[in-house]
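Incident log, structure service

09:12 report received: a user says their structure output differs between two submissions of the same chain.
09:20 pulled the input from the user's history:
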Amino acid sequence: MEVTSLREPKMADRVATVLRRMFIRGEIAEGTMLPPESELMERFGVSRPTLREAFRVLESESLIVVQRGVRGGARVTRPRRETLARYAGLILEYEGVTVKDVYEARMALETPMVRRLAEERDPAVIAELEKVVETEAQLEPGSDTVDQLTDFHAAIARLSGNKTLQIVTDMLHHIVEKANRSLQPTEGARAEQAVRRSAKTHRMVLDHIKAGEADKAADLWQRHLQKAEEFVLTGAEMSTVVDLLE
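09:34 re-ran on a clean worker, output below:
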């Protein structure tokens, strides 16, 4: 690990920047334990408090995990999408964004994805979606079912082929899952009907994708998302993201 001694203002940020760059470029692999503090202090030319402040910055970004004790140290970890969702959630909370706004954003992102999947008709993609739909057909109402019914949505984003859209969709997916668990019933006739309707619609959308019927797939998916929004937000249209995440 070759580094030069840093002697500039805001040293902790500078140390964090150098280490972060090494992680992202793969110069220090995921799972690697960083050298002891004494060695890093010498290499960077910084004090222990400065190094530990840099560690706190990287730990808050989920780039390292600091293990305490005699055999402890800082271990490099992979950046997690949950971290993005958490920070984005904080911004949405601060801005007073409504849950309805989040659902509308999901609709704007997912509908074109479904259209593209139908246009491409990739056998591998269809096979993966088929597995999700088959699993859904066996579901019964319950709190776990609420999460499992969003697996089809997550799969659409994952298989869309655009990494940036996938990451943004994952962020929204995290919030939507919380809304589904918090705002919709998980037991009773209404819940049973919702489970059956969602599983049936997912199957119909997949059939359109398999047939290459892009317009039908996109139209049905948009209607499905609108109905899902109406079901979850009945009487709670003005609920904000902070209501879910606090």
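09:41 both user submissions now match this output. Likely a transient worker issue. Closing.
09:42 reviewer note: The mean pLDDT is 84. The domain at 11-76 is CATH 1.10.10.10 (Arc Repressor Mutant, subunit A).
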